[in-house]
Write a structure and sequence with these properties.
This protein is mainly α. It has helices at about 5-10, 10-20, 25-35, 40-50, 65-75, 80-90, 100-105, 115-125, 130-145, 150-165, 165-175, 180-190, 195-205, 210-225, 230-240, 240-255, 270-280, 285-295, 300-315, 320-325, 330-345, 350-355, 360-370, 380-385, 395-405, 410-420, 425-440, 450-470, 470-480, 485-490. Helix 5 crosses helix 6 and helix 7 packs across helix 8.
Length: about 500
């Protein structure tokens, strides 16, 4: 979809199409835009025409020849009036480049049975005459509407057309910018008897779309297990992405080679590590023991993070003695991995809370995530110290997030304090959180705050009113049972 249409919607394009059809805009420029349009543009264009019948010249008539008349047909075929759509479809102007074929496909999913049946008859009769560009253009639309209540016919039609199309057409569909079409084309290509192994290997290693890449890897792995080709799986394991490597290692285990898993225990991907741990167990080993041994043997710097994460995934409580020293490792990412591993194994949350002032944002994010489910672990007084304006922004954010999950009225008070102080870093976040609370979570705040807290909240609401606005301030006071400024102070 062209970027300008993504940004502005399809109303402006619909205006240009209608203007070109009426003779007040360049037909060639509009046709060039439509020729490059993707599925979202065609669907959006159809909706834009149907949104307002008066905006697009409801008196346009359909004639038989010429480029302008093709656009007149398009406007009529997208009319909000079912009779006009039916009349337009009945005069379907099949063109060699298939420019308008996407619109005919859209009409096969029309909610009016007469329009729908007529369009389906024409698509069945004329789809074979549409050129490759038109077929691919229409195929993208069909994939996009395939899940609609009446969109299955279009999807079946283009699937059959692509299945019988030349190999070159299917290859271009596999390289199409429309991801939905690309994936459908891969599904057809991977059907038995079409793709050669080396081509599928290239796609499994190089295809940019992760879903299509994984489908190719799954096909290769299944064939390699069936044909007993460990060399194919080994190449995928050495060169593929994480999910591709998972398929390859799983295939090797099924071929009776689980010992291959040990070499991948320190993979950067948690999914791959889990698969490697499973393979080691299948081979009769204990992955935790291998992790312990590696971590105590001064591992290479690039492997420490994955080894720490791996031991946290499959270790036991005594392994905290091995993992705790890594909370002070020079690498921020290793420290973050150690935070996650220590908490996963039940390590002291108080020790983790001490790292909220870590100079690395990645570590503070890990600490915040580890402590979110345990409000109160970090002393509120300490969190307020870290929230002070002199702290680094990532430290303040970590303290704020833990304060707001501690209890309802602390959350409201902290948000209001940041607003009242006109906090430059966290003020916008606090306002958004306060609005979200007042419009949603406030309904579950069954216990009112203590009287002293209520007095404090009332004063803060008064101070924050210029930033909150009258309506939000009124809603907050209502939730708190404050009818006026004086009531909050009395």
């Amino acid at each position: 979809m062209p970027r300008e249409l993504q940004a502005s919607g399809c109303g402006p394009l619909a205006d240009r199409v209608a203007a070109a059809a009426a003779g007040t805009d360049s037909v060639d420029e509009v046709v060039a835009t439509l020729a490059d349009a993707g599925a979202e543009t065609w669907i959006g264009l159809d909706r834009a025409f149907r949104a307002d019948r008066l905006a697009y010249g409801d008196d346009l008539t359909v004639v038989e020849t010429g480029p302008r008349e093709r656009l007149r047909w398009l406007v009529a075929a997208c009319s909000p009036d079912g009779h006009r759509r039916e009349a337009a479809v009945a005069r379907w102007p099949l063109v060699a480049d298939g420019l308008l074929f996407p619109v005919l496909l859209l009409r096969t999913a029309d909610w009016v049975p007469e329009v729908r049946d007529l369009a389906r008859g024409f698509t069945a009769a004329t789809s074979g005459a549409v050129d490759e560009a038109g077929l691919l253009r229409a195929a993208g639309v069909a994939v996009a509407i395939g899940a609609w209540a009446r969109g299955g016919h279009a999807l079946e039609l283009v699937t059959a057309a692509l299945r019988s199309a030349p190999a070159e057409t299917l290859a271009r569909a596999r390289a199409h910018r429309d991801v939905g079409l690309r994936r459908m084309a891969y599904g057809l290509w991977l059907e038995p008897g079409r793709a050669r192994r080396h081509e599928v290997m290239d796609a499994a290693l190089c295809e940019p779309d992760p879903v299509s890449r994984l489908r190719c890897a799954e096909r290769l792995a299944a064939d390699a297990v069936r044909d007993e080709r460990p060399d194919v799986l080994t190449r995928l394991l050495e060169e593929g992405t994480a999910k591709v490597r998972v398929e390859a290692l799983t295939g090797l285990v099924r071929l009776g080679r689980p010992e291959a898993g040990a070499a991948h225990l320190a993979d950067r991907s948690a999914l791959m590590r889990a698969t490697a741990q499973w393979a080691v167990r299948r081979a009769g080993g204990t992955p935790a023991a291998l992790y312990r041994r590696a971590l105590t043997a001064d591992p290479a710097a690039g492997r420490v993070r994955a080894l720490v994460g791996g031991l946290g995934e499959c270790g036991t409580l005594p392994d905290l003695d091995v993992l705790s020293p890594f909370l002070e490792h020079p690498s921020p990412r290793v420290r973050a991995a150690a935070v996650r591993a220590v908490r996963r194994l039940g390590g002291s949350p108080a020790r983790i809370a001490e790292m909220l002032a870590d100079p690395a944002p990645v570590v503070v994010r890990a600490v915040r995530a580890a402590l979110r489910e345990e409000p109160g672990t970090a002393p509120p007084a300490r969190l307020r110290e870290l929230l002070a304006t002199g702290s680094p922004r990532h430290v303040r954010l970590g303290a704020y997030e833990l304060l707001r999950v501690s209890d309802t009225w602390t959350r409201v008070q902290v948000d209001l304090e940041l607003l009242a102080a006109r906090d430059a870093d966290l003020g916008d976040r606090a306002r958004a959180d306060l609005v979200a609370w007042s419009r949603g979570d406030a309904a579950t705040a069954y216990r009112p705050p203590a009287r002293e807290v209520l007095r404090r909240l009332g004063s803060l609401i008064d101070a924050a009113e210029p930033l909150l606005g009258t309506e939000e301030t009124r809603r907050l006071r209502w939730h708190l049972g404050i009818t006026s400024r004086r009531a909050a102070l009395s």
